[in-house]
Design a protein that fits this description.
301 residues, Nucleotidyltransferase, domain 5, 6-stranded mixed β-sheet, homodimer
Amino acid sequence: MTQTNIKADWIAVDWGTSNMRAWAMSASGSVLAEGSSDQGMGKLDRDGFEPALLAVVGDWLDGPTTVVACGMVGSRQGWIEAPYAKTPCATLPDGLVQAPTKHPDLTVQVIPGIMQRDPADVMRGEETQISGFLARNKNWDGVICLPGTHTKWVHVSADEVVSFQTFMTGELFHVIATQTVLRHSVAAEGWDDAAFTNGMETAMARPERLAARLFSLRAEGLLHELKGDTARAQLSGLLIGAELAGAKPYWLGQQIAVIGDSNLSKLYVAALATQHVPATQVNATAVTLAGLAKAYRRLKG
Amino acid sequence: MTQTNIKADWIAVDWGTSNMRAWAMSASGSVLAEGSSDQGMGKLDRDGFEPALLAVVGDWLDGPTTVVACGMVGSRQGWIEAPYAKTPCATLPDGLVQAPTKHPDLTVQVIPGIMQRDPADVMRGEETQISGFLARNKNWDGVICLPGTHTKWVHVSADEVVSFQTFMTGELFHVIATQTVLRHSVAAEGWDDAAFTNGMETAMARPERLAARLFSLRAEGLLHELKGDTARAQLSGLLIGAELAGAKPYWLGQQIAVIGDSNLSKLYVAALATQHVPATQVNATAVTLAGLAKAYRRLKG
């Protein structure tokens, strides 16, 4: 580790399946430094979390320091299991769980996820983003869409998560584009806005034909020389269109906030716009930090 | 190669992406011997096909011998490209293509696949099974369902393929069960009939919610200890149910024949029965051989 002059009052951590991000925070809640690592929960066993954390934040420690972490770090396969709160519940559930540590100055508090009994559903990490969004938008009621590997649609009211539904859209896109026969037809990069919109509208109109439309992409590649970037955008449109058809009870007649990767969020905002649903794109990092800061303040309050 | 006494009058070959099967045939069309290999088209470059074939059928050769082959062996990445016939067309298209061979006694004839311009679709191998089915069921009109990696629904009339549609159902099952987060919830084996029917009916009723129902299987595993064999059957039911919803224009009010793997075909017959659609399960190997024999007779006729 290289020496730096940054010393954190506390540390914010967003620890997912694939990656970890950390921020050195001042007492007033501003970011002093940030770091990241590819040591996601999926790559670590229980003893691996503390060294992986210290590799990123070790330089920021200067005496006893609290780390507040959200995400899959609190799952059963994580550092320590932070049991789910049950809907309906506060967007930032009580019951942070302290992870076991060896470093004398380190206290790590993990934010619980939220579960819904029926239909069965779970989230870890998104509750912190939602909580941060509400901290910055007091008294906001509506539906929050969090696109990603497992896209979530969350109905929030009176600072509570009322209900939510997860769609495996992002993960389906990944495995279909890379692990099926469509890998021969779908480019790894590139885009075509018209093809996205066409796929989206096709799937919204006839979501039951999805598995047939997928094979059509392959056949169009063979017979009509469909371009790889066009196929990529159309595949994305088909899957997001099918999701919008399924999530209609969530977005119809609601105000929508979209929190996630910037490019992916833009697609959802554009897709919702074709349905005359206004949606606001929200900076994901900002609300993640706002949620972690809210949890820290509550700990210290 | 071990010496045998079997000498083929001709040889029938079904050569797919993953595997190859071959039969030593008598002049009268009965099977004298059979063999198989895991050297599917996907594992071979152009020069690899002849040695892979001879490894299985070499012992059966006794002077000049004709091999009739169907399937992906005739694709652009196969032994030789056998250009597609275009719908509407005879179930067994004209225009067999001779593959280049070095062995002096070997003549290999490859059956073309069938393409449909709009919606774009392709088949290779199924046309031979359909042709064999019609050879055994004269004047049969209706819809043939060929379940598999890429399930096909084919409208046949007057011994012609009128139209068809391919659903990526089998391949989606495989990648979702093994390459996504559901791999933690879906068992590699095992079954539960009630869960299959439940998944099938759920997806037929609300096919647009497929990506959400998939994640529910994971959440039910985490929250309600859903069993792995139950999850497996329900995943299969969800995907086949969504397919049946999409293929309804094909099966509604039609007589259906189902040609494919025996266990998978049973699922389709059972699923169609819940929709009051009678479907006949057909022995896939028998109709494949009947189709290859029809092509051989035409060559020699």
